[in-house]
Amino acid sequence: MIRTKLCDLLGIEYPVLQGGMAWVSDARLASAVSEAGGLGIIGTGHAPPDFVRDQIRKAKEYTDKPFGVNVMLLSPFVEEVMKVILEEGVAVVTTGAGNPGKYVPALQARGTKVIPVVPSVALAKRLERAKVDAVIAEGMESGGHIGELTTMVLVPQVVDAVKVPVIAAGGIGDGRGVAAALALGASGVQMGTRFVCAEECTVHARVKEAILKAKDRDTVVTGRPTGHPVRCIKNKLTRQFEELEARCRPVEEFEKLGIGRLRAAMVEGDTEYGSVMAGQIAGLVSEIKPAKLIIEELMAGAVEVMRRLGGMAGEGR
Length: 317
Fold this sequence. Notes:
The chain is built from 14 helices and eleven strands.
C-alpha cells in the first residue's frame, strides 16, 4: 500500500484524513475512520466545550488509535475548547478560519500535532513560521467554507513554499484523486464529502441521499459578500442567497438567513432550506459504504493508478 511521511508523523496506517465537519463528523465517524487506518477528525464548529469533551471521550472508548479534533477559530468557545483538548490529550488538532499560532506551543507541549487548513501560499508560509506540524492545502472545490484557488493550482505551490508535510483537500473522492494529490507533492489527502456517505456517519439520511443524487454541476458558492463564501448543494436556500447577492443586500441579511441552516440540514434533514454543505466531488459519490471499505478502495485505486502511470513511463524509455 501507500505510506508517506504523514503516516509516520501522525501514527496512522494510510495518509488519509477525514475532514472535521460540524454537525457531521462525530465520535462515531471519526473513530471508524481511525480504526480503518486513517485519521478521523471530530468536527466542533461552534459547539460548547462540554459537547467537545463528551465527543473526545466517546472516541477514546471506540478506538485506541489516533484521532483529531477540528477547531473553528471563529467559534465563541474557542478558548474553552482548546482548554478541553489540552486536558484530554488529543493526538491532532486541525484548525480553520484563522491563525492558530498562539495555541501551538501549549498543544505541542502536550504532544498534540497542529495542522491548520490554508487557502493560500502566504498563510501556509506564515503558519510554518509559527511551527505548525503540517498544513492542509484546501482548494475551492471543497464543501463548506472555501478559498479562491483550486486544489490543482494551490497544492503544488504550497508544497514548493514550505518544508512541513502538505495535505491536499478539495475535490478528492477516489483513488485517482489520491494519486493526483501525491503527484502534486502532497503527503496525504483530506476528504469530507466522501465520508458523509460512510455508513458510520450519523448525518440525516436525506443529506446522504442529496449527495448520492448530485451531479457534477449541482453545487454552488454563496455568501461571497460576507467574505466567507460557502459551497453547498443547490436548493431553495442557495437560491435565496443568490437573490440577496443579486440585489446587493447588506451583509447582515446574509448572516441572518444563514443562522441555524447547517444544523437544519445535517441533523433535521431539511435539504430544501438547510445548508447542505458538500464539495464538487459529490457527483462522484454513488454508494454508502463502511469507512473501512472507503479507505481500502481509495488506497487500492491509488496504487493501481500509479502502477499504470509507471508503466507508461517505462514505455517511453
